[in-house]
Amino acid sequence: MATAAAPFTLAAQARRAYMETLLRAVPAAIESVLSGASRLAGEKGDLPTAQKRQTAAADIRQPMPHWQHALIEALAAAPFGRSTATSRGSLASTPSSNLAGNMPGLQLVDDDTIELEILGSRLALAMMDKASWEFTDLRARVSHLERRDELDITDVLRPQVVARVVLDTWRATGLSLDHWRTLQAVMHETFGELVEEAYHETNRWLIGEGVRPEIDLRPFIRRSIGAHVSSGFGDSFESGPRRTNVYVGGPAPDAGAGVSEETRLMTRMGGMARQNVGHAEAVLGRLNRLVGRQVPAFADTAEMPPSPGLVRAIADAQSGVQVKLRSTGSDDRAPVSMPALLQEMQQRKVALKQAATTPVERATIEIVALLFQSILTEEKIPAVVRVWFARLQMPVLRVAVGEPDFFATIDHPARKLIDRMGACVMGFDVGTRAAGDALDKEIKRVVQVVEAYPDTGRRVFQTVLTEFERFLEHYFKNENEATRKGVSLAQQVEQRETLAIQYTIELRKMLNEVPVQEGVRNFLFRVWADVLATVALKSGAGSEATKLMKRAATDLIWSAGGKVSREERADVIRRLPPLLKTLREGMAEAGIVADKQDEHVQALNDSLAAAFTAKAAAIPAERLDELMRRLDDLEEMLPDAEDLQIDESLVLDLSGHESTELQIVTDGGSMPTPAMLAWARELQVGGWYMLEHRGHIDTVQLAWQGLRKQLSLFVSERGRGTLFQQQRLAAFLQAGLLVPAQDEALTVRATRSALAKLDAAPERLLD
Predict the structure, then answer these.
(1) Region of 586 on the Ramachandran plot (φ > 0 left; ψ -120 to 50 alpha; else beta)
(2) Domain annotation covers residue 2
(3) Structure pTM?
(4) Domain that holds residue 577
(5) Cys staple from 519: which of 328, 547, 607, 759, with CB 3.0 to 4.6 Å?
């Protein structure tokens, strides 16, 4: 229930609640550091490391009470909304002597101070990794109360401010930075948990005061063009010609925030693949802990059959929902309004709880009801689809009461099915998609199948999930008007590039021991292999056009061989004009523009002229005949396309496929980390994203992925396709130029919403 307190008063009270939670937890944190140090000292390791750990564990024990006192005192002295008086270097060692006697304000920064900055940045990053989502919610609520876009860089709520206090008091107490580095993992874990709990309790208090129980993270997805981040040392770091900064799960870099803030942001982006999973697991973990405090038996994940009365009540409720929502079919009745539907579901929840016989069953009914209340009020789900989500509530409840791991794992097929269907329909402009199209019909079919098999539980959800994944591949390729052409073009690109790679591999094998001038080799591998692939795809591998291009390759190889007699040289000169004409025709067929053709022809002329004067051995006629036979049979020798890798060097050639319907991304982004490459491979067809490319920001949907996900096609609502190679896709994700439109899966968002309501009123679990 919201109080009448002024917003600024509430914000100040929230900071006070946050600080009080921190202060209460400091003694336990100190004990955790001591126990963690002892644990490290007892672990096996190389001799130098083991000695460092043992020495650190022994040395820190006596000063710990002094550090605890200094830490509590410094935190308690922090003004609300601003950092403590421990400004840069105030508790650290005094800076070195003046740079010049007549410039008293300009000082050298000693190594110790710089080391403190580095260690403080690492600690702040560890805190943010642990508590990012709680901090994001708290930041949104406090910023809302204070009517501003962002917290001050010196705000005590920021993790870097607390991290600085922790490091400064450690150093001021006489504890060494060497010992901190030895125990760094313990420190990061301990203080990450400290601020996470403080953020959580402060959020819970604000929710109880009625402050934004539902948090929309979209205001924290920000885009800036040509942004600069100050290094704090007089330099600036360019973010690139076009850069998207995504502040999800962490504070936005403020002016003058320093290099460490930029580093933190990029590290967070680089770990998003792992953290999305970790966040979902953390939300479920919090739900289970909260419910477990009210209903201890809820933690038991052993399958237990629901009570017979509840089984009958669920069946009756499912039949009632089907009758109520039958207006979504082909009859002429008016559709059910959402308020009426929610009221209906509330009444059914009451009836279901009356039929339940155990506290666990009643808690499960409450949680599932809250989940679907959130899902059904999600504005981005089209109304025609929302009713089919409503009809899933009873089948999901039936699974949840019989399979408690529905609340224990993010991989339950019922949860994954809801997330996949939600991701496909939650585009930014879903109203432009005609209701009743193939995707809507498939969602309807999936729900009806689930309803038809009430006793199969997990198995039916897994079966329809697999079917839905297969449907999506067919849908974007054949039935979706916006994506069909783009997918066709992307498949042609992949086929052509794959075939070109196969031709290149075989040409290299064939010419491995043949004396051919290097310029001609490069032309065959880099240009003519693509020509062969293009013509073979257009005309067929056995067509006369393809055979003509293969003969041109043989003629070129012969022409570039050693020519010792006047007759041979005259023959080359006679055959060269028609050969060059064929080469130009082939390059034109492959989409190579005239200027580039001229460059290639000039390079070949130079290579052939060099071959005239070289004293290389001539290629025997029988060897040429063998090459021609192998070229004729080339397709039979091609390696399996599944084993090929379309690497970064080939992406440069993909630009030749660009058209009005398809753009090829060949540059941009930043060097991806292994975690980001893994994320690029994990993207699922159907998801919506915001893409910034060539000066435009578009909402796009992932419509197709090629062999081993080496190529990925995103299609805008207008039908414009954008094709990425895997490495480039990871680079765009790394730089924040490609951002998920939904930063949480539908069920994770619904679980967080349920968690907020249960946090405010846990007694509803037992009603």
Answers:
(1) alpha
(2) no
(3) 0.59
(4) 485-643
(5) 607
